[in-house]
Amino acid sequence: MGAPKGNKYALGLTTSGRPPKYDDPEKLSQEINSYVNYCIENEEKITITGIALYLGFCSRQSFYDYENKDEFMYIIKRAKLLVENSYELSGQTMDIFALKNMGWKDTQDLNVAGISLHFDKDDEQA
Inter-axis angle of helices 25-41 and 70-90, to 10 degrees? Predict the structure, then answer.
């Protein structure tokens, strides 16, 4: 349903929706670095949800959406890599679970007498 006839609230607007939280890539990068430093100082794990909350987003998706903007793509990819590194260094069971949710695989490759074999951990349970 459209706006009522005579509605003048949107007249003159050139965009629709809420303005972006960050329009300066350098500012976003500084804020992410500030979060990482906070985590290091307080011995906390660097997480996607932590970054999203620290930046003032109300969802992880809002953070991920910035990766679709050319000027922010590298910054978001690097932040995600920092999160993976945080989990990778710890290596606890929950961290391995989180890494699997980020696309990592728990696999084993064997080469026996010229024959290559590939095993997924999930295949062993079947």
Answer: 10
What are the DSSP calls for 93-121, one per residue?
Answer: HHHHHHHHHTT---EEEEEETTEEEEEEH
Q: Which of 57, 79, 58, 53 is nearest to 67 (CA)?
A: 79
How would you class 16 by CB atoms within 10 Å of its CB: exposed for 0-12, middle for 13-18, buried for 19 or more? exposed
- Residues facing 108 on adjacent strands: 119
Q: What would the two tokens of residue 87 be? A: 């989990």
Residue with tokens 């670095």: 33
Query: Please, are residues 38 and 44 in contact by the beta-carbon 8 Å criterion?
Result: yes
Average pLDDT, consecutive stretches of 10 residues, N- to C-terminus, the chain (126 residues):
65 69 93 95 91 93 92 95 81 68 66 64 52
